[in-house]
Amino acid sequence: MHRRLHGRGALLDADPAGLAPRLVGLRPHQHRAHPYEHPDEPPFVVLTGARGLGKSAVLAELRDAYRGHTPVALIDCAEDQFRAPPAERPAASWSPLAQALLVVAEQLAAPVTGAGRITFPRLMPGLVAVAAGGWGDADSERIRREVERILLLNEGGSWISGLAGRWAGKVTAKVVAAATGTGPLVSSAIEATLESVAEGFSSRRQQKASVWYRTYPNAGGNAQRGLMLLSQHFRDGGGSREHAERYLVRALLADLTEAYAGVLPRMQRLGRPLVLLDNAQSAPGPGLVAAVLRDRTEGIADRVAFVAARRGEAREELPGAVRRELPEVARRCEWAPDAAPSSRALLLALPPLSPDDTLHIVGAVCGDALIPPQLPAAAHRLTGGNPLGIGLLAESAAQSLPRAGSLGELLTAGLRPAEDRPAVPAYEALLDRLVPAEHLEELTVLAAAHDHGSACALAAALLPDTFGPASVRALQTLLAEEGLPAVPGRFVGDPFVRTLLLLRLHLRDADHASWRTAHETLIAHYPDAGHARYRLHHELALGDTEAAVAHLRDTFPTADPRAWLRTVRFIASAPYFHAHDAEGRDFTGRDDRRAAVALGRTDAEHDPPEGVDAVLHLRVRRLLHAVWLLADPLVLPDPQVCDRLRFELEQLSNLRPAANALLWRTSRNWPAAALAGRPMDGPEDGEDAAGGPDDEGEA
Length: 699
Known about the structure:
Elements (H helix, E strand, L loop, with lengths): L8 H4 L6 H6 L19 E5 L6 H12 L5 E5 L19 H13 L14 H10 L7 H12 L11 H20 L2 H16 L3 H7 L12 H14 L1 H22 L3 H6 L5 E5 L6 H13 L7 E5 L12 E4 L19 E5 L5 H12 L8 H9 L3 H14 L6 H6 L1 E2 L8 E2 H9 L5 H7 L5 H11 L6 H13 L13 H12 L6 H13 L6 H10 L4 H10 L5 H12 L6 E2 L5 E2 L5 H6 L15 H17 L8 H17 L4 H17 L16 H5 L2
Parallel strand pairs: 1-4, 1-6, 2-3, 3-4, 5-6
Antiparallel strand pairs: 7-8, 9-10
Helix pairs in contact: 4-11, 5-6, 5-8, 5-10, 6-7, 7-8, 8-10, 10-11, 11-13, 14-15, 14-16, 18-22, 19-22, 20-21, 20-23, 23-24, 24-26, 25-28, 26-28, 28-29, 29-30
């Protein structure tokens, strides 16, 4: 059984077996075989979704579960080592994919239970041929370092121990001689490499590997010529380089297949090798995925189980892939490819964690610390089940309680990621991992927007002139590529990410100047009556409640009740990161006046406008503040306010006989949802409660 993750049993369970043991052919953390679900060809599994859903954690758990039992490699395609060549190496002789193949092979070579190291006699000369293309003006020590690292891929660790060092010396001597004018550089390196393979091995299998490049296109049956062509194609770049890289990927997989061939290897090696790719949306991920899928489509089989993780949904890159939700593959994945290469991929969307998972995580992290009983449910509502968010909030609670009394205070409290590192506010630590760092400033400003037009208005007010409408559209596209949901009426669709960004906007200046400017800009952007709820939402965010109360009071008698309830919720979803005084100005204390207003404690000091129904006015005012408080994702639910919300909705239901049933059911649903840490959805959102015969009969 997996030991650290929650909600991922469909992938990692041992009994009954999840997807990973069925594809790898081994039970996790055990050297025990399990029947293959797809014995001839496994699907190329790709975990998809936005940041923070635990894709990297799943890959790390898979590595730990199978390391030492079957060959395993895990690379993060976003690491610096795959972004650019080392300072001394020319770009013409380096690529992210070639570097990835070297790193993957180094990890796969590690010995496992019952079997020795895997060698890579096909991949090794190919990588030497590629590297040799950049040795024109290299010093002998650099050449030796590069050659020795590559040749170690063929180090079996037994009777040939130390052979790689001798090969490196021979190859280096020939290359240095060629560089001084005694022979062609690349061909000398390739010739020395092939000679070393021929001299070092006498088995039929190794000899067969040494001549594998005879089949390279236009090689004419000559392995050395094949490697020369591969090196040239790699240096040519573009499509020629992609062709050479595909052949290198094929060499890696052929070496792995060879390691499992024959009677003895099959007896010693259980399961399949496992290659794990994190951040596969970045190079070398797309090239490696495409090469494997293309070869499998063309009937070139391999024995490897691949699991990749990438941000977004991969709809453009893998249009024909089979898509499944994680629970759907818990016992069988029902995958079958067709003629398209991308159909050989199986895309799995990692779901958010459940409230029970959140409860367990908070309990495990906080240990014996006294936490408010509503904290796990409130944390789940705030994060939407985001594993990263839940984990960091729990860490902040463990470090900050009882000083911090709300989720807002947990987010602004200092979080120490490690004993030797300084504390940073928890919301900053979360944003650092949930949004692209290069766009943090722009997203901070545009998080308050609702659509393209309002985002452009905010950009004009708070961002440099160079960030115009085209930049806004590009950022919208980026959010979709990142896997964040598109939600009508919200520029940043993910509620958790939007809350964190708005908190950062509020704290951007000591006097909240950017916060006020943003909301004042949007108030001016929505002057017409048709967009009243947007304007009132932003007025409420600045602490001005009068216009919102007046609008809801005046429209209650005649508006469609479902639309009216949705308007209440939308207006009251205005963020509240600080207290306001009676006039709506920023208040430096910790007092949150919303509860006092919702409970009617300020009714006596509040004078309704002349000529209005004072009872209705005060009831709507209390209702608005109750919903504003209970819908706030940063505040733990207040049972007293929930009771008052129930009462106010009940009383309003008596004033609208035709909508009595709807308002009465809402009086039950909204408080119950708030207490349970759920969004205050209700019958006004469902079709079965959208005005049926029962409602009409009670009119």
